[in-house]
Amino acid sequence: MDLQKLTIGKALNLGLRRAMEEDPKVLMMGEDIGKLGGVFRITDGLQKDFGEQRVLDTPLAESGIIGTAVGLAVRGFRPVCEIQFEGFIFPGFDQISSQLAKLHYRTQGRVKMPVVIRVPFGGGIGAVEHHSESPESLFSHIAGLKVVSISNAADAYWGIQEAIRSDDPILFFEPKKLYHSGALKMEIDTETSPGRVFGSRVVREGTTATVVSYGPSVKVALDAATAAEEEGKSLEVIDLRTLSPLDLGPVFESVRKTGRLIAVSEAPLESSLTSEIAARVQQECFYSLESPVLRVAGFDTPYPPAKLEEHYLPDLDRVLHAVDRSLSW
Questions:
Q1: Does the pTM exceed 0.85?
Q2: pLDDT level of residue 193 (50, 70, 90 thresholds)
Q3: Which residues belong to any copy of the Transketolase-like pyrimidine-binding domain (predicted)?
Q4: Could you tell me where the DSSP H helices lie in 43-148?
Q5: Which residues touch 208 (CB under 8 Å, ≥6 apart)?
Q6: Does residue 252 sit within a domain?
Q7: Is 130 a catalytic residue?
Q8: Catalytic: which of 130, 131, 180, 321?
């Protein structure tokens, strides 16, 4: 047993390092990920230790990064691409949706696509336009892709390794504002795998209402549960972890117990993952619901300037208000 207390960012770095040590076919590609170690320092030290042939600083060309990764995967490599900020992913959207997501199906399984695209996402860092988006719903709608999002250091460490070992193309969404949060440090056994990482998990048990979220919103949900406890309310919090395909079994089970559901996400409300969660829960748990499914999310506007983002992002008060609304039915 090797216990280490890690932030999410350090856990990702160690997970990437271990994957590269175990498989020489694992390559890293991205803008400034080599000598600089990435703008968030997630790949810090990897080029120094594994060389420029395995950790490649690329031009500012997301379509080229993804297209090159597709070609490398065809030749048996396992490329890991970093998109510097989630808002930069759209020049590569065609390569992701038309090629990466389709080749395994198009070739009837003969060609596998073991490509991981790491995407720092979400707000809360005071950045300029195109640096605080939440585009995960767009990619969750594309058949042939797996979409996951981590919220803690243990899932970061083991999840990135599981993603790299997979033969499926995976978009790996990482909550950038939590990368280096000391408050979220976790003691992790870096030698003993906890088993399956990609699936919904109850992270706090409760009986009054269920709160489901993913990525950066999990911390908000947990903070709301702590505050609600002081008022005598017991919130059950579920971390989705896998966004496509959705693993809603634990959510259904929880809602049948609590009778209420609040879905929380930073992404805009309309046509989002919270929309799908609400539809599926009301379809599967209709007779268990004591109130309508409520959603707490970003607004249906472009992400605002940094001075306004605290008013845009779902926070503890908005989640607690939704809980009160649910209980008022």
A1: yes
A2: confident
A3: 6-181
A4: 46-50, 62-74, 93-94, 103-106, 136-140
A5: 228, 233, 234, 235, 258, 260, 323, 327
A6: yes
A7: no
A8: 131
